[in-house]
Amino acid sequence: MVRHNNQLPNNLTQLQNLIKRDPESYKDEFRQQLAHFETTLEIFNLNPTQYNKKLDEQAMFLAQVTQCYLNEMKMFPQKIVDILKAHNTILHSDMRLSLCKCLILLRNKNFITSFDLLELFFSLIKCQDKNLREYLKTHIITDIKNLNMKHKDMKLNSTLQNFIFSMLRDSNAKTAKLAVDILIELYHKNIWNDNKTVNIIADVGCFSKITKVMVASLKFFLSRDEEEKDENSDSDDEIDPRDTMISNKFNKKTRKREKMVDKVKKIAKKIKKRKEKAPVFNFSALHLINNPQGLAEKLFKQLESSNDRFEVKLMALDVISRLIGLHNLFLFNYYPFVSRLIMPHQREVTRILQFAAQASHELVPPEVIEPVMKAIANNFITERNSTDVMAVGLNAIREICARCPLAVGEDLLRDLVQYKTYKEKSVMMAARSLIQLYRQSMPNLLHKKDRGRPTESLSELKSKQYGELDIKDYIPGSEVLLEKKDIKSVESKSKKAKKKAEDSDDEWIDVASSDSEINISDSEEDNSDSEEDETKNVSTNSEDSKEEKEADNDINNDQNCGKTNKDDEESSKRKILKANRKISKENMEEKIETARNIAMDTIFTDEDFKRIEAAQIKKCISGVKRNKNAIEEPEESTELVQLSAIENIHKKRKHDKNARLESVHKGREERDKYGYKDRRKNVNCSKTNREKRKTKAYQMVKHKAKGKVKKSFKEKQIAFRNYLIKQRKMK
Predict the structure, then answer these.
(1) 81, pLDDT greater than 80
(2) Measured distance CA(289)–CA(295) in Å, rounded
(3) DSSP β-bridge partners for residue 289
(4) Which residues does 610 contact at the CB level (< 8 Å), separation at least 6?
């Protein structure tokens, strides 16, 4: 036992273990080690540049057992702090790191406050030691995270925030960079995600004279806080498209009706996705800025007079464009500045076009954004450029017009739309996408032939002027709720008809859809008469042929009457058109009035909202005159303009050899062994002669390669002659 105690002063790890188990029994050994530490510390102060292994081990030992002897160890943390403060720049890197680890250990045991340690560590950042800086940064973030784990101490957080904000204004580049990195990291970890942190980064970081700090701050506002996840869910839709398929079962199968069912499925899916999608803010940091107008103006002023690299200027342009688009700001000098950079040979020109689209919104006056539109039209959409350049220009105009429909005038729009018949597919598709956009927003700007077939939803669409808001005092589609009683009566009739059909078992009967169904057959029967003719019997066809003959005789008689009858017909057609317009207007007014009355009188249930949605989908499909082409759902314009939307060129790209090989290998994944399939159920059974020939050498099977070929009569004659000659020679 005596021998064991004599070895303890040399074996600090074993002594540390024993002290933690029984502090009182080993108090003398601890005091001995404390005296050794103080002696070693005095020797170290004489030459602090060298690494002292003994001091390192003793300091770590004392830090581990500090909680066992609180009275003796009161001054120990301060001694370590004094060493680092006095010799922070001249200390050996390993010695400095080990002393910092001792302090972190003491901080975890609450022997030193977070604020004191933070102040010391920021003073150590000035040292030329990259590993130490990374280590200290990790500790500061972890420490603040642990402090806010259970509950947030607002007073302590405010003290720490003010200290780090003061470090952000420090003239030392490394200190300021570490401060902004810590703030950004803590924001992304949802610890300091308040508007105070965001506004300090915006007001101080974005205008710092240190380029690295400014770039880090700009990147913070450009990065997404929550990545959008595209989930292709195959779950059942709220407006179930199966209802339409059921209603379609009991009608005649036609290609037109199948197309209509597919269209209903697509629209119902889009509405379902839009509902499930939570309102995700791409840049929640930009939402928290107190004075976005002032920030945008200051950033633009700094951009105009800066001599930074082109990449840094692009980042500033991006932040300004996002601020303008998100908060609907007015910064009229931004658009002429961007228009000067819109040239096909300009570096990163697609990104500049993206910024121009992001900076456009409905409140931008058309004459302000006109220089950008002219620059794109004159520099990109001309036939002297390549087709890819033209397509990019058209895509950029489409993205700008999606956010600011009045940005393009009627004359320019009709000129751009003429590229819909261009010989190259990329240009043609870009022009057609522009047509599709204006069909949904402002069809009156398009030529009549480009507006497409009108639907009921488009007839309700109102084209807004500059600054106009379309506010409705009713719920569109709620007039369908009045038809509930009629539908119930129809359902009761259909049940009676079903019973009769079961008795007769000879005929098929149409079944009406339920309240939540979208009955396409009803809409088609109301709008088109062409399919009714197909379902008629042979007897009715014979009657039609007689009527056609009578009609032909009438036409011949009319031709003899001359021009007077033609004039009468034209005038009668005009009167009918005017009458139809009046009727449609009256119907619209009646629908709006009924919808307004229903909204005032009733409380809508979930079933009612389902019926309203079904009615709105029906409006997108059912036409005013006919029901041939259903107009597609317009794409939603998000806050951020996707670069792929501008660079979207409909064209097959050429791949190099590596890309082709990669696609080949990708196609072979999750696939059985490729090659000849013998289609045998049992792999171990015998093979056919054809399979055996695959493994043989060609010389063995070349005589069978030609196969059985029928000889002509002449070939047979020659072969027989040669045979006879051979037989004669043998004799």
Answers:
(1) yes
(2) 9
(3) none
(4) 238, 239, 515, 516
CA distance 687 to 181: 70
Contact 81, 119 (CB under 8 A): no
Eight-state DSSP code of residue 639: S
Question: In degrees rounded to 5, what are phi and psi of residue 455?
Answer: -115, 175
The helix/strand/coil state of 498 is: helix
Residue 482 banded pLDDT, cuts 50, 70, 90: low
Query: Residue 718 carries which side chain, given as an amino acid letter?
Result: I
The encoded tokens of residue 377 equal 């039209």
Question: Bridge-partner residues for 455, per DSSP?
Answer: 623
Tens digits of per-residue pLDDT, 327-364?
Answer: 999 999 999 999 999 999 999 999 999 999 999 998 99
Residue 122: its pLDDT value, please? 87
SS3 517: coil
Q: How far is CA 708 from CA 381, 687, 694, 704, 713, in A?
A: 64, 22, 19, 8, 16
Tell me which amino acid residue 549 is: K
Contacts of residue 23, defined as CB under 8 A and 6 or more positions apart, other chains included, come to 30, 65, 68, 69
Q: Is 91 helix (H, G, I), strand (E, B) or coil?
A: coil
Q: Alpha carbon of 690 to those of 676, 696, 702: distances in Å? A: 11, 10, 13
Calculate the CA 466 to chain-centre distance: 29
pLDDT tens per residue across span 377-427: 999 999 899 989 999 999 999 999 999 988 898 899 999 999 999 988 889
Helical packing angle, 387-403 and 366-379, nearest 10° = 170
What is the pTM for the complete model shown?
0.64
Say which amino acid occupies 103: L
Overall residue count recorded for the chain in this entry: 731
The number of helix segments (H) and strand segments (E) in the chain equals: 35, 0
Mean pLDDT of the chain: 76
- Report the distance separating Cα 619 and Cα 664, nearest Å: 46
**Residue 372 burial class via C-beta count within 10 angstroms: exposed 0-12, middle 13-18, buried 19 and up:** buried
Distance CA 545, CA 362 (A): 58
**CB-count burial class (<10 Å; 0-12, 13-18, 19+) for 263:** buried
Q: Alpha helix (H) ranges present in 169-291?
A: 173-188, 195-200, 211-222, 241-249, 255-276, 284-287
Query: Can you read off the two tokens belonging to residue 379?
Result: 């520099």
Buried b (16+ CB within 10 A) or exposed e, 673-683: eeeeeeeeeee
